[in-house]
From TrEMBL:
InterPro entries: Glyas_Bleomycin-R_OHBP_Dase (IPR029068), Glyas_Fos-R_dOase_dom (IPR004360), VOC_core (IPR037523). The lineage of its organism: Bacteria, Bacillati, Actinomycetota, Actinomycetes, Streptosporangiales. Residues 7-130 form the VOC domain. PROSITE patterns: VOC (PS51819). This is VOC family protein. SUPFAM superfamilies: Glyoxalase/Bleomycin resistance protein/Dihydroxybiphenyl dioxygenase (SSF54593). PANTHER family: BNAUNNG04460D PROTEIN-RELATED, VOC DOMAIN-CONTAINING PROTEIN. It comes from the Bacteria.
Length: 149
């Protein structure tokens, strides 16, 4: 039996306005709709989006089924990492579509260009690209802070 989807990690996000969220992910992050599953009343059960080499599922918030959106929880403790060729361009596009900057895109000590955004639905995204391949020892040496300080 073959899998209908590629195997791997596929985040499933719950939002208060799935149609608006899908529009944001398409406009702001370049996602492409692959499949839509709706209930008979038109409620979006889930939409599968292609986002780079990965997939993303988006559904309406349904707290009764243990599927709350970040605003219901007071925020999100999850950070979704999106590896792209140009994090500056992706951040600019996402901001233009309504994302807020938590951390501007910049050069990081671990060898990546990296920034953090919060989408209009409360989900947090890190946009990043590798600039150089550092060893774990090189990263530790370049760290300007220590957890035990």
């Amino acid at each position: 039996m073959t899998s209908l989807r590629p195997q791997g990690l596929c985040p499933h996000l719950f939002v208060r306005d799935a149609e608006a969220a899908i529009g944001f992910y398409q406009e702001g992050l370049g996602a492409v709709e692959v499949f839509r599953n709706t209930l008979s009343d038109g409620t979006i059960l889930f939409v599968e989006l292609q986002l780079g080499a990965g997939r993303l599922l988006v559904s309406e918030e349904t707290p009764a089924f243990g599927a709350p959106a970040p605003p219901t929880l007071g925020g999100s403790p999850v950070l979704i990492l999106l590896e792209v060729d140009d994090p500056d361009a992706v951040a600019e596009r996402a901001i233009g579509a309504g994302a807020e900057v938590e951390m501007p895109v910049g050069e990081m000590f671990w060898g990546e260009r990296y920034g953090v955004l919060r989408d209009p639905f409360g989900h947090r995204w890190a946009v990043t690209t590798a600039r150089e391949q550092l060893t774990p020892e090189e990263i530790v040496r370049s760290t300007t802070y220590r957890v035990d300080d």
